[in-house]
Amino acid sequence: MSWLGVFLLALQTALGFPAASYALAATGLNLQFGYTGLSNFGMVAFLMMGAYGMAISADRGWGIWVGFALGITAAVVLALLLGIPTLRLRADYLSVVTIATAEILRLVIAARPSAELTGAARGIGGLSSELGFFRPNFIPEGSYGFGDDFVFNSRQLWSMLVCWSLVLLSTLLIRTWVRSPWGRVLRAIREDEDAARSLGKNVVIYKLQSFVIGGVIGSLAGAMMALDSGSVGPARWIAPLTFALYTVVILGGAGTVWGPIVGAVVYWFVLDFADGALNNLWFEVSDTTSGAFRLTLMGIGLMLLMVFRPQGILGNKKEAFAVGR
Amino acid sequence: MTPRRLLPAPRVPALLALLALVFLGTAWVATPAGAQSEADAARCAFTKPEAIEANGGPLGQSIWGRLCQVTDGKPTFPEGVAITVSQNGEEVATGTTDDGGIFVVEIPGNGTYQVTLDTKTLPKGFALTDEDRATLDNVNVNLGDQQVTFRLGEDTRGSRDLQDYLTTAAKGLRLGLILAVAAVGLSLVYGVTGLINFAHAELVTFGAIVAFVLNDAGMPFWLCIPFAIAAGCLAGYANDRLLWRPLRKRNMAMVSQMVVSIGLSIALRNIFLIGFGPNSKRYTAASGQREKDFGLVRLTPNDLIIMGICVVVLVLVTLILRKTRLGTAIRATADNPDLAASSGIGVNKIIAIVWIICGGMAALGGIMYGLSVTVTSDMGFILLLSMFAAVVLGGLGNAYGALFGAIILGVMQETSGLFVDTAYKFVVALAVLIVVLLVRPQGLLGTKERFG
Fold first, then answer.
1. Does residue B62 sit in the same domain as residue B109?
2. Which residues, 6 or more positions from B110, have their beta carbon under 8 angstroms from its beta carbon?
3. Cα Rg of chain B, angstroms
4. ipTM score here?
5. Is residue B97 part of a domain?
6. Final residue of a domain: which of B112, B147, B182?
7. Is there a single domain that holds both residue B120 and residue B241?
């Protein structure tokens, strides 16, 4: 593939659905981690709730709106279950409990006896036809774009349109909220929890609210991922997805309004470009190796970012160092 | 920094009582599930080497096996039972069992046979478990000889005896001890630096992989262990010297450090995946293990060795922490680094030593886990969740807590397989975690004052 092709392909992912869904999930995580300083290392569990809410609704023929409702309800319940015992405690506890919960939930969903509800390891397919996600698509059939490497079909454009709209909506909502007195309390908690408490704020309630809202946005992202791919299986919801979202949030700038969007676009561009470059330089890279290489890159990137530019692209350094203290 | 108590006096009797309660509770709740009594299956197990020994020479081309029925907990063997081998409805050969219940029926060659046990020849007191299974159709012989099994005696499927329960508990103890060895380092590092190190999982994997590489290159397995531990110690030191010490110097926020450790964990895990490959591999010492009957429990020789090594190491570490000057310095640093520094303790040196201990123990934990199961490039990460649960259960940052938490968790995880589907055994870890956080957030051994 030509270098121009590699570039265009990377650009396609960076503007397409992958970046949109990551931006949406990262927006939720940004509220929790960036604004409130909650180290939720099990974000993927909330995505999983949204995706499986959608899948189960499709499986039973309940329709798309019930799917959203199921996912959101499950996310709220999960947030309360995790939040009530852990948010009273030191920050460390939340991180340990959330990562463990996410992985265990995934194992439960993938377990054989859960097959009737979740399809176990096989998962649930045929979502888009059952739920009619693409039915309102008004974009005519055909391919849009230029060249061979930067093209979207009408279904991709529809997914992008819906998902980016949700991103925009949630970003604007969060912008309003974090600029309100409520948002100031969240940031105060992030900077110094004891100070916020001594000013008479019920810190736990604020943290819980932020945790729940972030989780709900995460479940929307999961639901979108399920709708776009048309099938849901347990293999996707692993811890590296959570940490990819962390990379996105920190890359864009934790605790900034537009950070998650910028982060998601840059993240996907860099990653896909590196992938293409790898394939250009060495040939015949096996799928395992290429996937592992991608994650290695992400891991190193996350470390370097945290050490050398914790404020990311949009943040300011003074605030970044306070994150999660 | 909040003061962290590393080692309060353990309330051992209370804990032992709890352990006993957990185990008894499990045994009571346990309901029969569909599996042949493992004890009976183990008592009647029969292998080719034993058959060759009994036959007094190679088995040649034959169909062989041993009739065995467990009566009053002891294996008994019927003598003089006629076994008929036929092919396409025509009788090919016959044989009878000897006084050890063993039969070896010679056959003309590879192919598909029907093997029939003549129930009329069964001595008194012996009976087939299932009368309809006196004839085994479609016995395929591909490699010259083939073992066949007729199950005798009452159907013991679904019933478990005390030995099964105790064996499961012993396996849980094995897992718990391995977890403890692997997790104490995690807890110690948290104690002295406040860091929850997600990349601890990769220290565990690293040790196991180093041992595998050496073992694979032809070094005897038991000799690989000290080398791998040394490599682990070195890796622990390198971790501190190259990464964490500079970050401490920068005064980096703890959550940021956790994110760094996550990045490191992901990067290392995938480098291991590229280098080691996605398949699981075994140490040479892991093969050819058979459970031996020790009366109360059935364990493999490796199980005993693993538990022995773990106990020795854990006792050693406890002694170091409690009795030596180094241990006192570690505990002082964990309690209050500033105060420790002003009393003349070289805090950075202590932290480096803790990292070295942490790396070595993680490596040993990894090797032991690899020996009891298999070595994979993500084994550390799989263990990490249980280690977290164990550490929280015992009290975050408390070295004894990690030890007790790990043992309790290991036993609970394994014994839970007796009454829930084994696929759900990790749920037990989660349930334990959440209940502990709700009821006693400071953990079993933690002190309450740490929470504001």
1. yes
2. B61, B141, B142, B143, B144
3. 27
4. 0.83
5. yes
6. B147
7. no
Neighbouring C-beta atoms of residue B218, cutoff 10 Å: 7
Q: Looking at the structure, tell me whether residues B124 and B207 fall in a common domain.
A: no
Radius of gyration of chain A (CA): 20
| Residue A146: both structure tokens together | 């230029």
Q: How far apart (Å, rounded) are the C-alpha atoms in residues B11 and B445?
A: 8
Domains of chain A and any CATH numbers:
3-130+171-320 (1.10.3470)
Evaluate whether residue B153 is within a structural domain.
no
User: Is A37's CB within 8 Å of B388's CB?
Assistant: no
Chains A, B: CB contacts within 8 A come to 152
Helix, strand or coil, per DSSP, at residue B414:
helix
Same domain for B183 and B139, yes or no, is: no
pLDDT, tens digit, 9 for 90 and up, residues B147-178: 888 878 776 555 667 777 888 888 889 999 99
My answer on whether B176 and B57 are in the same domain is no
Nearest residue, CB atoms, A37 vs list B255, B262, B273: B255
Whether A1 and A276 have beta carbons less than 8 Å apart is answered as yes
Strand partners, B115: B85, B136
Give residue A25's pLDDT. 95
Q: No. of H helices and E strands in chain A? A: 15, 2
Strands B135-141 and B82-87: unpaired
Which residues make Cβ contacts (< 8 Å) with residue A116, sequence separation at least 6?
Answer: none
- Evaluated on CA atoms B385, B389, B390, B392, the torsion sign reads positive
pTM above 0.90, yes or no: no
Q: Is residue B1 part of a domain?
A: no
In this structure, the answer to whether residues B322 and B352 fall within a common structural domain is yes
**DSSP states along A216-245:** HHHHHHHHHHHHHHS-B-GGG--HHHHHHH
Q: What residues of B are in contact with residue A322 (Cβ under 8 Å)?
A: 253
Mark whether B373 and B227 lie in a shared domain: yes
CA distance B244 to B176: 29
Among the candidates B77, B112, B147, a domain finishes at B147
For an interface test with A, which of B197, B259, B260 has the most A Cβ atoms less than 10 Å from its Cβ? B259
Classify residue B347: in a domain, yes or no.
yes
CATH number for the domain spanning B68: value is 2.60.40.10
| CA separation for the pair B409, B269 (Å, rounded) | 25
Q: How far is B268 from chain A (nearest CA, A)?
A: 7
Of the candidates A245, A255, A253, which has an alpha carbon nearest to the alpha carbon of residue A191?
A255
Instruction: Give me B313's structure tokens.
Output: 């190491």
Residue numbers in A near B430 (CB within 8 A): 100-101, 104
Q: Print the domain residue range for B21.
A: 12-30+161-450
- Which regions of chain B are under pLDDT 70? 1-42, 73, 155-160, 446-452
d(CA A180, CA A58): 38
If one counts the domains in chain B, the total is 2
Q: Are B332 and B367 in a shared domain?
A: yes
Interface test with B, best of A96, A198, A241, A246 (most B CBs within 10 A): A96
pLDDT tens digits, chain A, 325 residues: what are they? 678 878 888 888 888 899 999 999 999 999 999 899 888 999 999 999 999 999 998 888 888 899 999 999 999 999 998 888 888 877 778 888 888 888 888 888 888 777 778 877 778 887 777 777 777 777 777 777 777 777 788 888 888 889 999 999 999 999 999 999 999 999 998 888 888 888 888 899 999 999 999 999 999 999 999 998 888 888 888 888 998 999 999 999 888 999 999 999 999 998 888 878 877 776 556 666 777 888 888 899 889 988 888 888 887 766 655 444 3
Number of alpha helices (DSSP H) and beta strands (DSSP E) in chain B:
15, 11
CATH number, residue B305: 1.10.3470
Of A89, A95, A293, the CB nearest to B451: A89
Give the strand pairing for B145-147 and B62-66: parallel
Question: Is-contact B228 B297, C-beta < 8 A?
Answer: no
